[in-house]
Structure formats: structure tokens, C-alpha cells
Design a protein that fits this description.
By secondary structure, the protein is α/β, with parallel strands linked by helices. The protein has 14 helices and 23 strands. Helix 6 links the parallel strand 6 and strand 7. The structure holds nicotinamide-adenine-dinucleotide.
Length: about 500
């Protein structure tokens, strides 16, 4: 397969001008082969600032468009995504290394959030509140916020943008997006798809969506710009630790969606067939490169010898390779650095007493592509590197005997994104979901840690950053709230009985 040729053809079909794909100083690679697929020109800091100014001007018009009309633009975006699903899904596979069903699934998620946002455009509800004063009425109104900055990670190159953009647009905001420098091509494709929706819409202001191609320095322009009241940043906890304080310094809002170190607990009553499938997808799917990937597993001693050998078999037999050519279930790591990170974690785990199944490189004809067999590591206890996120397919398995201790270990890491329990015991399930159960933003029963639906709010606690995107009432993060008190009486009583007679 000539991946560079196919990439160019896909991008052209998606509406990206071929001229932007060559001649620049920022090479773009496909992890499927490690081969170069484009040379893009990164934006300068000055031009990035100009793009933010243009988005601010667009916001000032867009905020006055009625929300249901704004929803029409997002409805058209959903239509354009449906029409481009096959091509964009394949481009996701080429650029991020995902298997075809996951590449297409990512685009489906974009379509789903557009549908959700269209409904939301007629439901940006505020409360009415009982006033303590006669002849007064209190209410909350929700107003557009301004330019929403989106910084995204390589592993969900387009879905994360759409979670933010679909909500931000119906909420009356403009969007400036800094995609990962590892996946800029899918961002260019989204920009072209959005442009088609905007042109069909007719009178959308120019500059409503800006895409900034560049590395973290361009991300920093977005983070520091005074005309960006909210930045939604997805990536590593290291990135969040830099971005969070910079935003706080200028009192901007942050939605931080950072690293995960997700765990599952398999209890004595678990349906082991179901658990096995959920664990296999959660830990090996997307080659371990989901923020919600299952990384730690606590298995009760009574089922350990039943489950773990079956899991090992799945690890030994799962197909690894170029998913577009071979139909393999486990695709490549994103790059050499990811491979190095994985090997270093495995060495540390071994030194700490871990017994490793898998983890070795799977050689292909291309030296620059990094395929690995997923690793299952039986650990005597939870010590480093189990306590840190390594963005690769490593599952640490530990035996437990006491449920309280398992929950304590489950929560004893920095990250707090996703979690799951496998049990048919209602007491265990409810305890896991209760105030002294899982401390994560996502807690599941009898399904794995990964593969969330857009209807729920997505995000996690602690070092995962505390942000929420996508469904439920996450839209409130993209608007400013005003509390209004209206006096329709003929007198002016003050609250709390205060008197001030002049
Ligand atoms: P990364 O932190 O290296 O980069 C993410 C983005 O942040 C990129 O666009 C990058 O250019 C930008 N960036 C980095 N430093 C910056 C800075 N100082 N200022 C402004 N921008 C900066 O992450 P990655 O390797 O692309 O993605 C993997 C990580 O993302 C994992 O830790 C994973 O768990 C996490 N992730 C989290 C979620 C979530 O929703 N919680 C979703 C996907 C990925």
C-alpha cells in the first residue's frame, strides 16, 4: 500500500487543498508504516494570534444568532460528517493507527455529538428561582462565552474536537483548534468538512472555526491569549500541569482532560466470559492508546487461576499488524518514543517482581513502524510503574483477597478517569459506585473502562484534571451564567431585610 499516495487522495476527496500538503517544515507520518505522508507548513505565533482575533470577531456576530439557528449549522456539520464517514474514518486509521472499525467509530462519535448538540440548541435551560421579596422574580440565563480554545491529543484526533466544537457552536462561541502535531491531517480534513457545512448554512460569520497547525508553542499562544476565555485541553497530565496554572493566572477557564490509569476489579461472582472480553478490548484495543485503556486489574484469589490463564492465551493469540492490510486487532504504537516508554516500563516492572507475557516488538518490513505484542504483567503488588500511566498496551494484574483493600489500591494512584467492577453481587457493585467506592469520573459495572457513549459527561478527577466534556450538562462549561432579579412591584425592598432610607 502506498500510504502517502492514498493519504493525498483521501485528503483531496475530503476537500483539503493538495498544495498545503507539501513544501512545509513540519513532516507528518503514518504510524502504520512509519513513512512520511505530508510536509505541512506550521502557523507562526503572529498568524495564530491573528486567527484568534478573527475568531473573536466571528464570536461577536455568532452570539446574536438564535441558538436553534446555531443548531442548524451543527446539524449540517453532522450531515457532512455522515457523507465523509468512510474517508475520514480511514484517514484516522492512517494517521493514528486505529483499526478500521475504531476509525469509523471515532467519526460515528462525531456524528452522535452533533445530533446531541442540535437537540441541545433548543434546551439551553436556566432555572427560575423563588425570590424572598414580593413582586420580584429571579432567574438564571446562559450566555455565549467567547472564543473556545481546543487543544487535542493524537489518540482521538477528531472526536475530541467535535465534542468541544459541537457544544461550543450551539452555545454561541467560536472555536480555535490546535490539534496534536502527530495528527494534523485529520484536523485539516475536519476544517474542510466544516467549511462545507458553513457554506450550506449560508450566513455563518467568517472565522468561526480556526485550525492552528503547529506544536506546543502554538498551543501556548492559545493558552496565553487574553481573548480566549476557555481552553479545553486534552493530553498528558504533564501538559495539564503546564496549561492549568497559565490559564489560572489570567483567570481563564480550563477544561482539562488528562491522563488515566484505569483499573478494574474482578470479584468472585463475576461472569468471567464477559469479563474476559471486556478486559481484552479495554486493555489491548487501540494498542493501549486510549485515555480510558484498562491498565490495572485486581482479580479475586478465588477466580485468579481461572481468569488469568485465559487472559494470557488471549494475549498470546491476538493479531498484531497493519490493520488496514491484515485485519489485525492491534495496530501500531504512535512512534518510537512510545515504544521506548513501553520497554522502559516493562523493565521496571520486571525489576519489581513482575512476570511478563508478551511486550516484544513485532517486526515488519518497515523499521520505522512500531508494532508490539500487548503485555500482561502479573505483579506481586501495586508499586511503580503500575502507579503511572504508560501510554502503551500494558496490563498489570494483581491478586486480591479483601474487597476493601482492593478498592483502596484501586484509588491509590494519581489519575482518576475510568474504572470498572465485574460482579453479580449487588452489594459490591453498589459499594463500588458509592461515595467510598471508585474515586473516578467514570465508574462502570460489568463493562470495561473504555468505549464511553457521548450522552454522559466525560472526564475524570485528580490528576485527570476534573474537566467534563460531551453529554449531560457539560454544555454549561461553555457558557457564562447570569443571575437576574426583576422587580415588577412599586417598592424597593432590600434583601435580608436591610434598610437604607435616603
Ligand atoms: P500530549 O500531552 O503530548 O499532547 C497533547 C496536546 O497538547 C498536543 O496538541 C500538544 O501539542 C499540546 N501541548 C503539549 N504541551 C503543551 C503546552 N505546554 N501548552 C500548550 N499545549 C501543549 O499528549 P499526547 O501524547 O498527544 O496524548 C496522550 C495523552 O493524552 C495520554 O496521557 C492520554 O491519557 C491523554 N488523553 C486524555 C484524554 C481524556 O479525555 N482524559 C483523552 C485522550 C488522551
Amino acid at each position: 500500500m502506498d500510504i502517502a499516495k492514498e493519504t493525498t487522495a483521501l485528503l483531496e476527496r475530503l476537500g483539503v487543498d493538495k498544495a498545503v500538503l507539501a513544501g512545509g517544515s513540519m513532516p507528518s507520518y503514518s504510524p502504520l508504516t512509519g513513512g512520511k505522508v505530508a510536509d505541512l507548513a506550521p502557523i507562526s505565533a503572529q498568524d495564530a494570534a491573528k486567527a484568534i482575533e478573527a475568531a473573536d470577531a466571528a464570536f461577536r456576530q455568532w452570539r446574536n444568532v438564535p441558538a436553534p439557528r446555531r443548531g442548524e449549522l451543527v446539524r449540517l456539520l453532522g450531515e457532512e460528517l455522515r457523507a465523509s464517514k468512510d474517508d475520514l474514518g480511514r484517514l484516522v486509521s492512517i494517521e493514528a493507527g486505529k483499526i478500521p472499525s475504531e476509525g469509523l467509530g471515532e467519526v460515528q462519535e462525531m456524528i452522535d455529538i452533533c445530533d446531541f448538540a442540535v437537540g441541545l440548541s433548543r434546551q439551553l435551560y436556566g432555572l427560575t428561582i423563588a425570590s424572598e421579596r414580593p413582586g420580584h422574580r429571579m432567574m438564571e440565563t446562559w450566555h455565549p462565552l467567547g472564543v473556545v480554545g481546543v487543544i487535542s491529543a493524537f489518540n482521538f484526533p477528531v472526536a475530541v474536537w467535535s465534542w468541544n466544537a459541537a457544544l461550543a457552536l450551539v452555545c454561541g462561541n467560536s472555536v480555535v483548534w490546535k490539534p496534536s502535531e502527530k495528527t494534523p491531517l485529520t484536523a485539516l480534513a475536519c476544517q474542510a468538512i466544516f467549511a462545507r457545512a458553513a457554506s450550506r448554512f449560508g450566513d455563518a460569520p467568517e472565522g468561526l472555526l480556526q485550525v492552528l497547525i503547529g506544536d506546543r508553542a502554538i498551543g501556548e499562544v492559545l493558552v496565553d491569549h487574553p481573548k480566549v476565555p476557555l481552553v479545553s485541553a486534552t493530553g498528558s497530565t504533564r501538559m495539564g500541569a503546564e496549561v492549568g496554572p497559565r490559564l489560572a493566572k489570567r483567570f481563564a477557564r480550563a477544561i482539562l482532560e488528562l491522563g488515566g490509569n484505569n483499573a478494574g476489579i474482578v470479584c468472585p461472582s463475576a461472569d468471567l466470559d464477559m469479563a474476559l472480553r471486556a478486559i481484552a478490548f479495554g486493555a489491548m484495543g487501540t494498542a493501549g492508546q486510549r485515555c480510558t485503556t484498562l491498565r490495572r486489574l485486581f482479580v479475586h484469589e478465588s477466580v485468579y487461576d481461572d481468569l488469568v490463564p485465559r487472559l494470557k492465551k488471549a494475549y498470546e493469540s491476538v493479531s498484531v499488524g497493519n490493520p488496514l492490510e491484515t485485519g489485525a486487532l492491534v495496530g501500531p504504537l504512535i512512534d518510537a518514543a512510545a515504544y521506548k516508554g513501553m520497554q522502559s516500563a516493562l523493565e521496571k516492572a520486571k525489576a519489581a517482581g513482575g512476570e511478563i507475557t508478551g511486550g516484544e516488538r513485532v517486526e515488519t518490513a518497515q523499521d520505522a513502524a512500531f508494532y508490539v505484542r500487548p503485555a500482561l504483567v502479573e505483579m506481586p503488588k501495586q508499586v511503580s510503574p503500575v502507579t503511572e500511566e504508560t501510554f502503551a498496551p500494558i496490563l498489570y494484574v494483581m491478586k486480591y483477597s479483601d474487597f476493601d483493600a482492593a478498592i483502596a489500591d484501586h484509588n491509590a494512584v494519581g489519575a482518576g478517569l475510568s474504572s470498572s467492577i465485574f460482579t453479580l453481587d449487588m452489594r459490591e457493585a453498589e459499594r463500588f459506585l458509592s461515595a467510598d467506592g471508585s474515586d473516578c469520573g467514570i465508574a462502570n459495572v460489568n463493562i470495561g473502562t473504555s468505549g464511553a457513549e457521548i450522552g454522559g459527561a466525560f472526564g475524570g478527577e485528580k490528576e485527570t484534571g476534573g474537566g467534563r466534556e460531551s453529554g449531560s450538562d457539560a454544555w454549561k462549561g461553555y457558557m457564562r451564567r447570569a443571575t437576574n432579579t426583576v422587580n415588577y412591584s412599586t417598592v424597593l425592598p432590600l434583601a435580608q431585610g436591610v434598610s437604607f432610607d435616603i
